[in-house]
Specification:
Blueprint lengths: L1 H19 L2 H38 L2 H16 L8 H14 L3 H18 L8 H11 L7 H9 L9 H31 L1
Helix pairs in contact: 2-7, 3-4, 4-5, 5-6, 6-8
């Protein structure tokens, strides 16, 4: 359905430009946008390579494992159904760490692995478990210290100070993550009360 909408928009835009006499501007816009897309991808590749390299160094140095052990009490409070030393905890912490540094694409594989491990613990496979819902909230509204994607976009667009978004984004994601966790806890209390009725 989405593909049909895109085709409709493209065809209607081209037909409108032909009848409106602006086909030259449309052609120019197409080629300019293609060039900008390539520049954007190259900018993303540079910043992602940098941060993925740092994450790999941290992983090989054992820093991620150390962070996972140090943060396990917090993980245990957020995911009370998660057994100690379960692999899901490591994947969750790695996902949170990647999101913390603004590496949404790098965080996705760890998020998928965490969900698979949580599904193994799910006693009702047809429904999302409490831990799965909590992890989805935590992942969607993740705290981001360094929004690498936005910084690289601002850098590629020639912003005077690409990093001035860091502190506001950090504060905003703390608020969003706190709100998501509170909503998750309230929703769980409401739904668990209904289930016990």
């Amino acid at each position: 359905m989405v593909n049909l909408i895109w085709i409709f928009m493209l065809v209607s835009g081209l037909l409108f430009s032909i009848f409106n006499g602006t086909i030259d501007e449309v052609n120019k816009g197409l080629f300019d946008s293609a060039g900008q897309a390539v520049e954007l991808v190259i900018g993303f590749a540079a910043i992602f390579t940098l941060w993925l390299g740092m994450m790999e160094i941290a992983r090989r140095a054992g820093l991620l494992n150390l962070i996972t052990k140090l943060c396990f009490p917090l993980i245990q409070r957020l995911f009370p159904d998660l057994p100690k030393n379960h692999p899901a905890a490591g994947y969750i912490m790695t996902n949170v760490s990647a999101n913390f540094f603004g590496l949404g694409n790098a965080a996705t594989p760890f998020g998928v692995k965490a969900m698979k491990e949580l599904q193994v613990l799910n006693h009702q496979p047809e429904k999302a478990s409490r831990s799965m819902v909590t992890f989805l909230c935590l992942n969607t509204a993740a705290v981001t210290f360094f929004p690498a994607t936005i910084v690289s976009m601002r850098l590629s667009e020639g912003a005077a100070d690409p990093l001035d978004i860091v502190i506001p984004a950090f504060a905003a994601t703390i608020c969003s993550c706190t709100a998501a966790i509170i909503y998750d806890r309230i929703s769980w209390r409401i739904t668990s009360g209904k289930n016990h009725d």
